[in-house]
Please model this.
Amino acid sequence: MLSIKDLYASVEGNQILKGLSLSVKAGEVHAIMGPNGSGKSTLSKVVAGHPQYAVDSGSIDLEIAGKMTSLIGMEPDERAREGLFLAFQYPVEIPGVPTSEFLRSSYNAVCRHHGLEEMDPIDFDGFLREKMKVLEMDDKYIDRAVNVDFSGGEKKRNEILQMAVLNPRLAVLDETDSGLDVDSMKIVAHGVNTLRSKRNAMVVITHYQRLLNYIKPDIVHVLHQGRIIKTAGPELALEVETRGYDWLIK
Amino acid sequence: MTQEKEKPQVPESVLSGEYKYGFVTDVDSDTLPKGLNEDVIRLISSKKGEPSFMLQWRLKAYRYWLTIKEPHWANFQYDPIDYQDIRYYSAPKKKGTDPKSMDEVDAEIVKTFEKLGIPLSEQKRLSGVAVDAVFDSVSVGTTHQKDLEKMGIIFCPISEALHKCPELVQKYLGSVVPVTDNFFAALNAAVFTDGSFCYIPPGVRCPVELSTYFRINAKDTGQFERTLIIADKGSYVSYLEGCTAPVRDENQLHAAVVELIALDDAQIKYSTVQNWYAGDRDGKGGIYNFVTKRGKCVGHRSKISWTQVEAGSAITWKYPSCILKGDYSVGEFYSVALTNNCMKADTGTKMIHMGQHTRSTIISKGISSDRSHNSYRGLVKIMPTATGARNFSQCDSMLVGNNCSANTFPDIQIKNNTAVVEHEATTSKINTEQIFYLQSRGLTKEESISLVINGFCKEVFKTLPLEFAVEAVRLLEMKLENSVG
Model:
């Protein structure tokens, strides 16, 4: 599904990723852990195609129509229409644009790309309300402007709602747990778990182990100074929880 | 958002990148030499065959103009205007007699307007919109006149109205914007050459949008048009105005006056999409747009509503205002002002509450990008007689990039303590993070910019007629395309 090889990437001239490799197969959930400044968020932005992040060398390939295809040089929206999704650590506010209108525009953009029928506002409204139930979101969000006057927890739920609407093949969740209380985290994790399937894959980026109690990863990676320094099963996350990162770093 | 499916036909020219209206039409012109004096004014008046009261009115305005100085309180600087270096009259030469119908108008001019997306010929004319086309100093033709006449609606060039209904013109011309109002209004009164006139008789709801399209073509020429709209008791009219000019390196002066009069229970809705040439990337050339627009709610329960999308001109100095004289009358001002490159805009409104229980709403959205300056300037004045008056003002600014500026200068004067006046203001930025966020949800960069701008301007765009709203969104998208991220 996703293959990253020997990736070097920079933001504003500072090289953050230094030889990162990662391979994700359909049906898998990967957790990427690491101390602050290890390059976790940079990885998510580079994969999604943020214009301020530059790939210096290496490759990022995504399976598109059964063929591994390079994402480098593709616009963020092209990547999104091919089934890549990034849940933002800091979701962005868009004043004056109702959430429902935004989501329907996105949903239809993806449909158009794949030659599928677009949804009219009435059908979409029903579709959206179903998805919101899973995330225990109030109907009032539908008409509110995207992320404006949303609490931290509401913004994160809104990210997972967008993921549920767009139903991506590869989702990257960037510190979705930060700023969430335990109850919200359970709801968000439940939302994510209902989206897990054999045909899609997820990369869950987190600083702490606690989210992984609710979203069980198949594989856990530890990132440090822009490269993956350890890869193991779910037990690695628990070990990090008790021992911290120091034993891995030195 | 239903835009994808219901997208009405938008003129091709609106969808392109650079300023597509920048072409020059090659027509023979009847042009006065540069300079301004009483003889020039007499000549303009005689070319139009005006009644003598008009010449006297013009001369009075001119003599007053000579005694006053150009105002410089606006929040921008510009090179001095040499009023003797401007031509005050330029008209495409007539071939033989006056055209009797639109089909007889000079083909080059008809082509020009078609290129601008304004078909004038009888076969192709826009359904639902009657157009008065003004080319440099004169109106070249007005569509739908006969249909409107059947309802008693007069819609014609103001030069024609002076012959058709001189008493109406004499009664109302200058009644809202007197010749002594300000420097540019006095100049306009002295030298204006054409513009639109509109009268809606009592109880008539004008069935089509009335529209004037202004085109500056000739070089070194100023455009001074004057529009006068009178809505008699219980009538309704919606009026649209559009403007463009060729690309030229020199600045050109546009000093228009618009007067609206609403009698008892009448409603006037006036919408503008202004896209005069704004100069190049470095601020060379462009139109100096000094405009006085004012409406007077003379009658009880009357309503005047201004909507403007200001996206052009090197300099914009414009404050469409309402004098709320009749009791329970309503004034509205909805504005989107966009500045990019080196443009400077100082725009806003005045709401003067005189009658009891008068209400006004001001919604102003300023978008600045590149190195431009964008200011909102507004006055809300509640007079002692205006018991129970209310005003709500909202002024929002959006900055694109780090080199532009936005200012808000609200002035609130309350002389009656029963008044309720509210003012809100915000400043925000459109930034790469917003665009990246929307793009990462599958929307293209253009769609993303459009969504953000639409959201910001929503309250204003929803007051525009549909085709105009779509055109306005496209215009803003096009102007901002190279400014974001």
Notes: The longest helix of chain B spans residues 445-461. Residues 1-17 of chain B have pLDDT under 50 and may be disordered. Chain B touches chain A at residues 1-2, 4-5, 428, 432-434, 436-445, 447-448, 451-452, 454-458, 485 (CB under 8 Å).
